Amino acid sequence: MAEQKKLLEIKGLKQYFNEGKANEVKAVDNVSFDIFKGEVMGLVGESGCGKSTTGRTIIRLYDATGGEVLYDGVDVHGRKSKKQLKEFNRKMQMIFQDPYASLNPRLKIADVIAEGIDIHGLAKSKEDRMNQVYELLETVGLNREHANRYPHEFSGGQRQRIGIARALAVQPEFIIADEPISALDVSIQAQVVNLMKKLQKEKELTYLFIAHDLSMVKYISDRIGVMYFGKMVELAPADELYRNPFHPYTQSLLSAIPAPDPIAERTRRRKSYDPASHNYQDNESVEFREVTPGHFVLCSEREFKQYQVQSKH
Amino acid sequence: MVVEKVLQVKDLNISFHTFSGEVKAIRGVNFELFKGETLAIVGESGSGKSVTTKSIMRLLPEHNSEIKSGQILFDGKDLTKLKDKEMQKIRGKDISMIFQDPMTSLNPTMKIANQIMEPLIKHQNMSKHAAKERAVELLKLVGIPKPEIRVNQYPHQFSGGMRQRVVIAIALACNPKILIADEPTTALDVTIQAQILELMKDLQKKIDTSIIFITHDLGVVANVADRVAVMYGGKIVEIGTADEIFYNPQHPYTWGLISSMPDMETDDEELFSIPGTPPDLLDPPKGDAFAPRNPYVMKIDLEQEPPFFKVSDTHYAATWLLHPDAPKVEPPDAVKRRQNQYVGTGVGVGAGTFPGNKEGK
Amino acid sequence: MINKETLISKDMFAPAHVDPSKSEKIAKPSLNFWQDSWLRVRKNKGAVFSLVVLVILLVMAFVGPMITPYSYDTQTTKHNNLPPRIQGLENVHWLPFDGTLTRRDGSEYNAYEVRKVDAYYWFGTDNLGRDLFARVWKGTQVSLLIAFMAALIDMLIGVSYGAISGYIGGKLDSFMQRIIEVIVGIPNLIVVVLMILVLKPGIIPIIIALTITGWTSMARVVRAQVLKFKGQEFVLAAKTLGASNGSIIFKHMIPNMFGVIIINTMFSIPNAIFFEAFLSFIGLGLQEPNASLGTLVNDGFKAMIAFPYQMIIPSVMIALIMVCFNLVADGLRDALDPKMRD
């Protein structure tokens, strides 16, 4: 990974719900990572680990409790003029999880897709607007006849592609995909992933790909971050993470994925993760440390040394 | 070796009457379930996998569904013909079901104990006291710590994985002959899913029940299934032992399913994907329902529905590609890799016929 | 499961060509929300029948006063308290349209012949000799007007109040909800009576009196819906595209609430009619010579024993309107409820 330009820097991001109350939830707790231009950054973890909240906070759907999100060196959060906000909305887009809930059932597909075009005034005329819609529909493998239909007439995979077309309409640079395939059937997942990969190459997009399906994440991502209870516990290039997971939670997560391979399944051993196994003492500081180049683990000084020894073998 | 058939589904046809017309959800499904085995039914949403199992339990909505023809034979009785009262005696006792969402399949206002005791008292005429003892026993069996305390708690005091364990405990309360699990782990996280799958396999050995396991996750199928039935467009298109389906698939749809999942080796190559969308069963296409998405489509696929071709004693596939006159086609790379692996491991065709190949688990 | 060796010519196994784009085709005809809902409403016989009855009543409310030769406020004292008599039907004795009345001793007499009146009052006349046919339709007109206006204003206030409260949320939401609770907490009869005493009875004061408390249920329903939609992904998607709050509320939220809003309004119309009738009945309604169904029932009630038709006819009208509106609303609820969609 030579000299890559940082597109997004997330520094100490915090998102607490019900702050200061008895039921305070630290959904995202001091998470830092960078996303380089043109890469696919995967974010995995179990439900409730804060991966979706991280994505939504980055795109300002929630106001962060603390920390910074720098896009091209500019702070995304904090006070912004309307113009700055709009510009930011164009650069950063999102694809959602539930293809049934992410399209307004009362709008025709043409109006769903053209919403961004209308908001940002990207069409010169009505005709231009429709042409852009047709082009987007064809980009995602649908055809122009679909423009006058309503969302309920489409299958899950088709709707997800419409959602992608909507995000592409404003010509973004960075797309957050929040579990875009987990609600889809296996045969359709591949369609959507292939489409996303193709678009990334053609349009030089950068993705933050949030998912709990680790095999797909491994396939599409360049680097993967693993989250556990609001904290990032490990971050490494995709292959490296699968080959040498250091953090016991990552190991447990990887050992739990069933492979579509009956022979391998008969011998697979599952590891379980017990947070108490770290045995952290009060005076130990648990930090995100770089064990090998580009491979970060949340660990104490003692574990750090241990991991470094491990990595030499 | 003669294996006992516990359930036989014969030429089942089910339709739904909707505002837009008749939806032919199940179009001639045949399969058998043997004693002590796990049969996985895979397929995408709308392929009819859930409808098939719901019809076994007779849980289809009565006002708009209709069993057009066919039989479901269990214990010498045709379940499609039973009266509601007779069916109630079978439900929960001989055949029980686990649903996808553990959050909604328990009654939130009832204590766990009462929910487990209900079928025991109803079907086995147990006394309240005995039923409660059995409830504690069952919770222990499904791996819930401190069952004596937990049994008196309410569902909201349990986590998702724990609830699914409770649901399993209820389903197993009467030692059913058949357990139908409809995507029991889809709503759970991978680590919890792994625990639940282990538990189910463990319990199956202990109480020797047959399981019909519905899922769309091929990884889960590989983990639990002895035999696999692949459904598409309201029909079974391929059925065989797990090894046969995963290492020697014959139907192009199965090829598509298997190769559309990235394994740990595939990286930069494009994923194989099945183009298009599933058929609209309101108006099923003529001939093979998969034909419009089939890259190997032949003229006959558009005219005539393929019959089942025999691959081995346990393995059948409904595709014209197996007809002697059909041209030889190359399956996708991912499938070829698997076929090689299969030959490589020496579990060649016919080597491990069901149920002899079970001890590997 | 046996391989059928039927005769299949070899060329059938030649590769065929299928247009891949065809598999993305949607076979079903395109139906928008309203067409789809109408299909559902149509299945509900009761709702369709009620709808037809309501349309007839609505037309009659405007046409009725015109097709009788008598005006609703002309007093012909000589012709007072005449029972219903309709040409043609007067000879059918078991129908109540032959102009006969019953004396206290039980004997029947024909009021028209005895009093030598050569006229046909289809619904009879009241104690001032005004034509009840004209008055009933005029009354229906006024009652429906009051009910529609009240429901419309309820809807406008309720939807905007609920949408603002739910969308902005936080402290403002709590504050606005407390206001609703206070309004709901005061018995609305007291509020209405006070309002009418202050404003003097009339159509507008009654509408105001009805709406001053009536909008709260709509506001609550709309707020709940807004809270639900706030977290939905299509709303989040609009936010990330940079949509303004107004466009999120009006383009994305409200259209998705049409169903609930319409149903709520449909149920509030019969309530308003009933409440108006009730106010008139206790003497807080319209003043003479104006008529509403409530005032007609009130007038008829005074002569209920001697001239029962004077009360029965407007009462039947009120009952009919209320039942029909409720049935239509019920049918709409089934049709518009997204949970019922397959």
Give me a quick take on this structure:
The complex is a heterotrimer of chains A (313), B (361) and C (342). Chain A has 313 residues and is an alpha/beta fold.
Characterization of this structure:
The complex is a heterotrimer of chains A (313), B (361) and C (342). Chain A is α/β, with parallel strands linked by helices and 313 residues long. Chain A has a single domain, classed as P-loop containing nucleotide triphosphate hydrolases (Rossmann fold). Chain A is built from eleven helices and twelve strands. In chain A, the strands form two sheets. Chain A has an eight-stranded mixed β-sheet, sandwiched between helices. In chain A, strands 2-1-4-5 form a four-stranded antiparallel β-sheet, covered by helices on one side. In chain A, a hairpin with a 2-residue loop joins β11 and β12 (295-299). Chain A is globular. In chain A, 46% of the residues are buried. The model of chain A has no long low-confidence stretch (mean pLDDT 88). The longest helix of chain B has 18 residues, at 190-207. Chain B is globular. Chain C is mainly alpha-helical. Chain C has a two-stranded antiparallel ribbon. In chain C, α4 (132-168) packs antiparallel against α9 (245-281), α6 crosses α7 (203-230) and α10 (293-302) packs antiparallel against α11 (309-336). Residues 1-5 of chain C have low confidence and may be disordered. Classes of the chains: A alpha/beta (313), B alpha/beta (361), C mainly alpha (342). Chains A and C meet through α2, β6, α3 and α5 of A and α8 and α9 of C.
